[in-house]
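Budget justification, computational time. The allocation requested in the original proposal was used primarily to generate structure tokens for proteins on the priority list. As evidence of use, we reproduce two of the resulting records. The first is shown immediately below.
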Amino acid sequence: MLFSGVLDLPWWGLVMVTLVLTHVSIAAVTIYLHRHQAHRALNLHPLASHFFRLWLCMTTGMVTKEWAAVHRKHHAKCETTDDPHSPRIYGINRVLWAGVFLYARETRNKATLERYGHGTPDDWLERNVYSSPAKLGLFAMGLINIILFGVVPGLLILAVQIVWIPFWAAGVINGIGHYWGYRNWSSADASTNIFPLGILIGGEELHNNHHAFGSSAKLSNRWYEFDIGWMYIRILDMLGLAQVKKVAPRPRFAEAKPVADFETLQAVMTYRYDVLAKYAKSLKTTYAEELRLLRRFAPQDARSLRGLKRWLHRDEKQLCQEERARLAEALAKSEKLSTVYTMRQELAALWERSTASREQLLKQLQDWCGRAEASGIRQLEEFSLRLRRYA
């Protein structure tokens, strides 16, 4: 008869233990590897940092430098052929079910590790224990599981621990998180929020929020969103084991300035995702008004506008050639809607022109506001006023 373990738990007890152990691994990835190491959104006390490093070594075998480097490259090259795991490039099925192999392949790219792996731990423990090619931590975890839960249950729990992160992180987050879900922010990539309650994957379900504010320690942005990873960070903070460095900026407003100045420009750049989100509402209002008008006086043109709504708030570069052609054809039916859409592209270009000087960008912003207010389009006039109120 096989050894049944010190604890000798019933099957449901073993399931509960497995869920708790894998959730600790999820917390270690999102708090330590992701928010602390890859993005420097918070500082961790050495006690917390070493616990997470040891736990990841024993349950996943992942190396901090490799994980941080691959993830940073993903942000830097998102949705391009250099992205280590974009479903836009590799297809959703390959990333979802075989994302771990894409990750493993990129960890063998020395150029990636040298370019994006800076600032990660390089002490004796990291070099000789946590990064050991022998993966001794996994053997130690397996031995502990067998002693506590028995031979078969212990090995099964270890197997679940090993595959848990590769599936949920490398597969679901990197795959579904760039393929299906809702978007709060018009980031330049295809990132989505999979679900508003970030519990199962530690808050990483809020992936679009993360891509919009990559250096934020908090991934929830809306009142109905919950980030359990942020809750853990707040607990660690209260215990003196963590210190939050940065969260997503909240827009502040003041009395509208007669003319946009450098402070206005800086505020617009800082709150650019809020700017685009509010502009999307203006676009939708304009679209609804134009659709009602065309239905009365030009039913055929109104039919051309149907289905256009889902494309209006997206950057034109995110649309395929056929979608761009249909969008241009539909916009030609409404000069007002075409103007509002085109000026959205011009406004978004402000923070994409990295080579322009502050003076050039300010002149472009002032020119945009001037044309908006002289357009005779209520939505543009109101939005120009809003821009001049950002503080």
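The second record produced under the same allocation is shown here.
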Amino acid sequence: MSNIKAAITAVGGYVPDYILTNQELESMVNTTDEWITARTGIKERRILKGAGLGTSYMAVKAVEDLLQSKNINPDEIDLLICATTTPDMQFPATANMIASQAGLKNAFSFDMSAACSGFLYALNTGAQFIETGRCQKVIVVGADKMSSIVNYEDRSTCIIFGDGAGAVLLEKNEEGLGILDSILKSDGKGWSHLHQKAGGSQRPASIETVMDKEHYIYQEGKTVFKFAVKNMADVSEEIMKRNQLSGEDVDWLVPHQANLRIINATAERMNLPQEKVMLNIQKYGNTTNGTIPLCLWNWEKKLKKGDNIVLAAFGGGFTWGSTYIKWAY
């Protein structure tokens, strides 16, 4: 058996300058800072402003930040995968646009869609190209402009989401570091509880769909919360048991930043204290595919070579999963 693992060797990130605070939302919908904070843990979120700016704009910034941080020539990148729920267009792939704008002349690229679990799915897909020797350097981007599909008249969803992008570089490692195990799951029966009603081939855009506001996020909050609490906690505990890890062995939990109560429930199941949990939900809200790589970007300086890290996510579909990593630098 090959001892080659795919390891994260660099990270990059980008969030827009504009800050949408809870106080500003109070003037838009019937809500309060206290109500939002108590139910989600969110105080503010970043929003991408500017005509013609989409998900690719933020993703390019994150990729450029990554390349600069490690002084990598863009020509060295073999593959770029973009995990996104808000592509710039139905086609071409947003990844194609990112690779072109970031100068990745030798990379092939494609998108991956698995809602909030998309980054984990893409990370593990990218790892296969490293482990098989097909690629030497792979960039995985998680990016979303959630403000483009949020109804700012719906207080149940507009308080949750923000915009942002994070990126990681994968390279081979033969020291036993990198991505060591993953559990990825999905259940299509959950689609009706969290989705975008119109805009796809089943229900193409029309005057009626626009007037009925069917191009925004539709979420049955209580149902999604119930499934997320159970499944994200279950899969995180499962990957610990499978790798004989206790709470003391885990250095960091990197959870999808959907709701502070879901994160706390997952940490409690793993027997982890709060100081081992990466949080940026209070600053960025739920950036969907961006949450996990943005956490790694924010916490990079605190990470040490050999740290045991568990990534966990839950998203529409339903999709969920957990990945066990030994940090490589």
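A brief technical remark on that second record: Residues 180-326 form a domain with the Peroxisomal Thiolase; Chain A, domain 1 fold (CATH 3.40.47.10).
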